[in-house]
Amino acid sequence: MEKFTQLTGIAAPMPLVNIDTDMIIPKQFLKTIKRSGLGANLFDEMRFDRQGNEVEDFVLNQPQYREAQILVAGDNFGCGSSREHAPWALLDFGIRCVISTSFADIFYNNCFKNGILPIALPQEAIDVLMKDAEKGSNARMDVDLEAQTVTSSDGEVFSFEVDSFKKHCLLNGLDDIGLSLEKAASIDAFEAKIGQARPWV
Amino acid sequence: MSPKTLYDKIWDAHVAHKADDGTCLLYIDRHLVHEVTSPQAFEGLRMAGRSVRAPDKTIAVPDHNVPTTAGRNNPDQMPEDSRIQVAALDQNAKDFGIHYYPVNDVRQGIVHIVGPEQGWTLPGMTVVCGDSHTATHGAFGALAHGIGTSEVEHVLATQTLIQKKSKNMKVEITGKLAPGVTAKDITLSVIGETGTAGGTGYVIEYCGEAIRDLSMEGRMTVCNMAIEGGARAGIIAPDEKTFEYCMGRPHAPKGAQWEAALAYWKTLFSDDDAHWDKVVTIKGEDIAPVVTWGTSPEDVLPITATVPSADDFEGGKVGAAQRSLDYMGLEPGTPLSEIEIDTVFIGSCTNGRIEDLRAAAEILRGKKVAVKRAMVVPGSGLVRAQAEEEGLADIFKDAGFEWRLAGCSMCLAMNPDQLSEGERCAATSNRNFEGRQGYKGRTHLLSPAMAAAAAVTGKLTDVRELM
Lengths: 201, 467
Ligand code: SF4
Description:
The complex is a heterodimer. Chain A is of the alpha/beta class. Helix content of chain A is 33%, strand content 16%. In chain A, strands 4-3-2-1-5-6-7 form a seven-stranded mixed sheet. The longest helix of chain A has 14 residues, at 184-197. Chain B has 16 helices and 19 strands. Chain B is globular and about 55 Å long. Classes of the chains: A alpha/beta, B alpha/beta. Chains A and B meet through α4, α7 and α8 of A and α2, α3, α5, α10 and α11 of B. Iron/sulfur cluster binds at residues 63-64, 110, 112, 131, 133, 348-349, 408, 411-412, 429-430 of chain B.
């Protein structure tokens, strides 16, 4: 997994609430057996018409947002299915950070496994950052995971919370499976114990 | 010992390792796998030279992609990409030695229906699957939730999941349900009340008389949609109904082990003075048959209501409501019972069980459909066989329904069963998102009985008028 430490980039505004995983990557693109290449179909049904032409006013089709690396979105981003294709598509497009008031649980976890930083901030902060994002490519936001801050293009700083373990893994690009396998002895012992206590499992 | 909730008890019984910051390795008792969210996980194992740690606790079944029409065993019936995905699961199941129900096995079906049916899901277990509706299994008093593909790989390799504990939420449905009101109406009404993010950060325990009165099928319907309320999981304490459902299932314990399991299962309830971080109480008698009008499961109203206007909402929801109304092609003020329906879909892991088919057939008996297309997709091959034995299949067919083979089908339209642009569907599934059932397709969520009522009148209909 790619590390995430610090990012300065263009933020695209998506004020819609409840942006669900079916919007992020519609199901017809889930039939792949790979992780890569999904960026072309990110937000497919909003981004393209039926003929495959770009929908002009969709935010990521506007020239100033084509290189966006950050999304500022409405409440409850990523609700819906568990499909990790959603963060894969975001990442493949180039989005490394999503900022919202709240995220759906599974999506939130999936981001961390793919080097994407989801940041939850209060509504007032989102209001400021949404306005900032609307300024287009002149407005570069700065995200610093080590310091746990987002800085608007005007220099306004917002601090965010992040779980210390998730932060550690993201900062160092660590693979959780490797880390968990280091605890194999605990898993073995636990398995032996429940084999006795709950043999039907 | 301090009082605990049911969730606390199951959690505590599965912590294999706890780090100083509270991050735990939670041991997983059952890992269910389907073809869409697993190929990259198996690929990851291969690339790292890892094996499946507990193949005996890992169960796979293809469901999302498979056609539900006759002759589907012929691979030519499937589009190339679906065929590759199903073939990848066949191969992975074989290579890694996990339990498998292939497409041509009568036990094949939607993963969340197959698990309980085969006795894989039992009280007190931790159950995960790369699918958000894993919450369904919570109906057994199991801690069950969806995970992403990276986590699927993590569970395959380690039989654990890295987790932090969620908060405890109690949703109590008191009293009795009125006639015509079902488990689906309960679960939709709860989401209408709490919103799609109301459960974020929580595990919900559903309790109260109306929940106790539900069958296991009904309880699965309620827990299935905990995720639409944002919760990590939904759970219902096991009782005699649960034990009776589990007894004799192929993978349920037998003999002395059954007795030992039963003794343990009887300890699985929330203690009287357990701490709840949030409590929601709804009176059973206040719940009406409901439908959704918008493109979020929280857009739910009693069938007797009218289509709302965007001004009825506040904040970010104003824009979202307007977008929903435009997408759904609805005028504010229209009575919901005047909305004409093109298609009826009965099935999915929410409502594809035998009891759901019985409820729908009850309304359909001796009637004909008044919609362009009506489809029943049983949740598993065994549900299908039972429905045929009980004569339900004939009722559906006589009414003009297509009688399909088991799978997810039009719940997410990854197989050929899809809505066309503007087609309006009354669906017993769980998501009405934009494009969910087909590009620009319009979905109204409701119970099986309500879906049957819509099928015979051609409009969204208060099922109580047909009872
Ligand atoms: S029936 Fe629908 S919700 Fe259930 S597992 Fe299949 S696609 Fe998902």
